[in-house]
Known about the structure:
By secondary structure, this protein is mainly alpha-helical. The protein folds into two domains: 1-69, no CATH class; 71-124. The chain is built from eight helices and two strands. The chain has helices at 18-30, 35-42, 46-59, 61-66, 76-87, 93-100, 104-117, 143-171, and strands spanning 8-10, 13-15. Strand 1 (8-10) and strand 2 (13-15) form a beta hairpin.
Amino acid sequence: MDKELGTICMGHKWKGTVEARKLRFLELYEDGASYQEIMTQLGLDEHDLRDWRATIRILGVSRFLMSHTVKTTYSYETKLAAVKARIEDQVSYQDILAAYGVAPKLLRRWCKIYSEHGEAGLQPKKRGRQLGAKQKPVQELPPMEKLELRIKQLEAENAILKKVAALKDWRN
Length: 172
């Protein structure tokens, strides 16, 4: 437990901010703690531990500490080039991190998408409602229900007009 960083470690579940977790990782890493000790204290798996070490080694401590604060978007071409470099050319995750700036965890996700959906899976997704999306067709009500609905609308309109008239009388 580290009161200074405001973190509490319970089993493998880390309680605290990402910044505190990364700072604690740096402390442990610089003090020469074992992989197992770091993984236990911070709740990291082996992939994350290796990725963090590679990020520090390749991009530096400052980029490692700031990597979670900015959401980077990658073009389709960058995604495809990084995935093909990994799958077809067997380039290491660290080399791809250095060349493209893509975190290994993200690259693993892209490789999985690529293997399941091909190049189309890496295309940017359209967001929001589609242009020209049609509304559901209004169901035709029976004549009696139409009349009852119209009566309710007129009653509501009448009530509003009465309140407006009362408000005008009250002001005068």
